[in-house]
């Protein structure tokens, strides 16, 4: 009898969604339709646009209280640390990356492990912010991911055997890969695997690169620093910007701008959007000029790697306000007009809306409290600096060794960091996992040395409120308003999922996966996974049932760099597992 009811549910759900399961090799069309095909999750961002919105609605505001664990998979090993990955789901298999550059394939119904691949990292890797990985890409019959020794690995999706691997750069120079790559179809070169690079704290050259999915050959490379030439099919291509327009001397050659959080893609305009990290070193007195395109969003033509536009959120950054945060294409409907826009919550504490066709500034609003470094954003999108809150020039100090210390808000870990936002196609709101904190920061002299930290700064992060640091906010990008806020004691470091069931999911360092009413922020459900959550959740439909998945395992940048805020997360234990939830069988649900 129960079985019969279940079957009825399956067919109704199937009809409502009209979704056929994607099976066999993953195609261009599968990737482009990912956001609308809930039987699989084929891209980082749940759709190349990165909305992290699931059309599933079996789990909704009235029954989410009946959500129970379906299975859990241990990442095993003695070494655990932070688990920041978003999983993929294809053809009844969950693919999830884990700490120390590992990837697991598990049965999506039971969690039974199918295979595991461990990249076996060499001595001397230099990840800035824990040994994390944020996820894989899938195309054809292969899965791909980047490793902390700056390699891309392509594996047979069925067996986990290596098909090809490729060194993107020299890990001994500070390069690593922690972001999820994306696969984007092109006319000229077929499907391309697109990746960014990490290493902004070591003075690397930030760039975006595209590789042939079949053999790992480099197709194009686009450095983000003005003055450096790109490449296309083995030949030098155009120079990014103009030499020395916003940089002095040779500083752009070690200027940072690491593209460490990966990118999004807009199939409508056929543009890639990437964010770029801090200029190197952190000490801004050593590098006069705006230092483009560090701390920026850039649009790239995926056909040839040419830069289409750039928008700098923090020109001449002096606070480590990386501009890497994801740029989410969405249609902004205002006064009856639809604008092809993009939204992004920057490390610097402002939420920007840009015209995604040309990078023109539309609006900015502060999404965290008590910002000190800027008085606001002017009509062109440029910050109105508050010079008192730029760390002082060490050359002007008495001993020349330590510049004036300032208290800057937000802290260098940002109003928002790596944890991705969700944009609900239903409520038209952005759900932004943010943190309310500041930092004492000062500058010191520094010289570049290959493979060594290139900062020239000392810092200590401090809370700005007694009762919370984490703050999940629902932001209306049209009204430029915070609609609701959920406050969390420890800093939020996991991403967000929004669903057509009217729900928003996110995890906390305290170990809870939580569900909120997307309209008003009311907390409707929580479950403790036994370790801190610093990863984004997903939803998919498995045999007619909606499943919610999340990686669990405390770590990431906060425990490494957190300074005085460490008090708010004392006692959180490490872990390493994947958790999946679904509704309790009807007979059991109250
Ligand atoms: Ca940085």
3D architecture notes:
- This protein has 590 residues and is mainly beta.
- It has a single domain (8-589), classed as Quinoprotein alcohol dehydrogenase-like superfamily (Methanol Dehydrogenase, Chain A, 8 Propeller), CATH 2.140.10.
- It has three helices and 40 strands.
- The strands form ten sheets. The protein has a six-stranded antiparallel β-sheet, with no helix packed on it.
- The protein is globular and about 70 Å long.
- The chain starts with a helix and ends in a 7-residue tail after the last strand.
- Residues 1-19 have low confidence and may be disordered.
- Bound molecules: calcium ion.
- Calcium ion is lined by residues 200-201, 277-278, 320, 322.
- The site of calcium ion has 6 residues, from loops.
List the helices and strands and how they pair.
Layout: H1 2-17, H2 28-32, E1 53-54, E2 67-74, E3 88-90, E4 93-98, E5 102-107, E6 113-118, E7 137-139, E8 142-146, E9 151-156, E10 162-167, E11 182-186, E12 190-195, E13 207-212, E14 218-223, E15 229-232, E16 235-239, E17 263-266, E18 271-275, E19 296-301, E20 306-312, E21 328-334, E22 337-345, E23 350-355, E24 361-366, E25 374-377, E26 383-385, E27 406-408, E28 422-423, E29 430-435, E30 437-443, E31 457-463, E32 470-476, E33 481-488, E34 496-499, E35 503-507, E36 512-517, E37 523-528, E38 538-542, E39 545-552, H3 557-561, E40 577-583
Parallel strand pairs: 1-34
Antiparallel strand pairs: 2-40, 3-4, 4-5, 5-6, 7-8, 8-9, 9-10, 11-12, 12-13, 13-14, 14-15, 15-16, 17-18, 18-19, 19-20, 21-22, 22-23, 23-24, 25-26, 27-30, 28-29, 29-32, 30-31, 32-33, 34-35, 35-36, 36-37, 38-39, 39-40
